DNA sequence: GGTACTTATTAAGGAGACCATCATTAGTAC
DNA sequence: GTACTAATGATGGTCTCCTTAATAAGTACC
């Protein structure tokens, strides 16, 4: 949101700008009176009334009972109608498909999950996605027609247009126009983005990094990766390949997970998905072998992290991904390693949003795009809460 | 420019937006007729006329003789008055102080240079700066009162407010409010920024990287550094410490210049500032020892460059700094080293702006700030070309 | 219960900025 | 000199915002 290409126009454009100002003040905030809105938007009271009346008529805003017990005549209060439309965020992982439905303020109404086989054929996977979303809508008491937008986070390289180039962990993901495929299933626009990036977005909008403009998100788990929020926006890079510092040999990131997975202390036969957790738990209890493994891991982690920090000087670094459940074990040695090389030490935190991270990020991503659509200077004016006929594609509209 | 926080207001705000649209169309472009402006801005002809008339009255725009030989009644033509105000860009290096004065379109009118001693005391250095700028103004036939803004690029760590924390190569630069000091000398706002960053900006606005949104600038010379242009804007980072990947031990950047400076082929007694040039010239002629040294240097260079490329996926990487005069020698081995690790290979080029890079970047930086000032939503409306009384400080106004 | 005070609402008048339309003007083409 | 072309200038109308002033609906206090 926020930065759209600034452009003039006729008087209706001015009204549009003022409408947006009012909605921005109301959304995600307590109900407000006309006086408050007038002061915050800089408009006069009568004009504010005009704008609010129009927004009410269009269905964006509704009146709530006035607050009691105040001096003077009780002021009418208005709030944003977050339930005017609904968004779905989907997280398509190799082993799990998650979905959550939220209102226009990003409040989650319902959430569902369903296991998946990493090697499932495309048809099966698409059907599973549909089922998860339908379930989720049911749970929230909604139907397909309530959907304004679906945003999907998944592993692999994703183009701004919603094509998947490839994914190492999902065999069906191979040169695929996932956006188009899912738009045949759902009656609305479907956005696709890399899952780590969406997790980073969620942490920036509602997690530990809330309010930060520059954030480095370290995805640590059986696969390593990074995602960047720069100037408050998701950074994709020219070819949507940003965040791949794992490919730098000097970091040792490709093999780093092995330090935890194959530590000498892990009992024979432990399933691979539990191995690192075992090592980290042992380290928490002070086991020297485990601590040694953690030391080796964080040393590698620190190399890539330091590269990102020195280059970008972020306000905060967030640890996410599977291993971040043990952030308490990893943070001290990581901080120690970073302090030796970093010019200015950023804040350092573990993710707080946990497994829902990607789904929440997808919802936030969808909200960003709704803004771009409704508030665009040359787009359609503010509309009643019905499904927009055409929404510009992500990468294209941002110009 | 471009992205300012979108806000409504009264009718004058609309006029302001439309005025900005017109100026943006005129600035840096050929004189235009009302019909052309009306079409490009989306305004009606009468309104365009109104806006242009007002801008003419304020001194932002002037009429030029109509084009001849066209069908129909000759249209009046208007152009942006780039000479309505002037900006000075200054490059304060350890051994040289450069300055250039430019008009509001960034066209350089005059340029001066003056040697300096790295260990000169503060007073002497400040006096030298003043003399260089005065000289430059003289050469351009201007006086101090024509100055709208001065932008300074210098080595070291610079805060967004214009304080210098420290600099390794200029002894007088030590915890210093350079912005304030120079504002006592010049009758206008003085902006300070790191020199590499300004060089990167110049390359993005008028050099090899023109038009690119994401640019990585590698400063290679007796000191190594990087600067980033992200989403078209200079990236400073939270503590203005971005671009310091030189501090990452794994890159070997701290000692990398030694590979070229102390190559076995360099004759005894060669002044340090010519040593690398000697090695690079020898390498160009195929000398094996020199080529070996270049190989060692580019290998280190590639590590830091790869970190930046993999993280950010820029459109283009620009080689700047003293060594970049021999970019033709360095680029092939660098490209070769990068191709082995980069997921998507960016364009790779040497700087084309040469020694004037920082001064030009300073001018472009000043232009960006003028925009922010004049076109800010809550700032003063468009004004006649007289020196603005107060211009918001860089970092603060950008919110 | 009545009066004073406080804060919102409502209504009226006015100014600024935009638009559409049309008659007029100043060139070129032949 | 006539036909054609394209820009100019003037008129009237609409929309959005602002200011000001009268009215309304509560609380506080006697």
From TrEMBL, chains A, B:
CDD domains cross-referenced by the UniProt entry: ASKHA_ATPase_ROK
Domain of life per record: Bacteria
Entries under InterPro entries matching the protein: ATPase_NBD, ROK, Tscrpt_reg_IclR_N, WH-like_DNA-bd_sf, WH_DNA-bd_sf
HTH iclR-type domain residues: 27-64
Gene3D superfamilies given in the database record: 3.30.420.40, Winged helix-like DNA-binding domain superfamily/Winged helix DNA-binding domain (1.10.10.10)
Protein family per UniProt: Belongs to the ROK (NagC/XylR) family.
PANTHER family: BIFUNCTIONAL UDP-N-ACETYLGLUCOSAMINE 2-EPIMERASE_N-ACETYLMANNOSAMINE KINASE, ROK (REPRESSOR, ORF, KINASE) FAMILY
Protein's UniProt name: ROK family transcriptional regulator
Organism: Actinoallomurus liliacearum
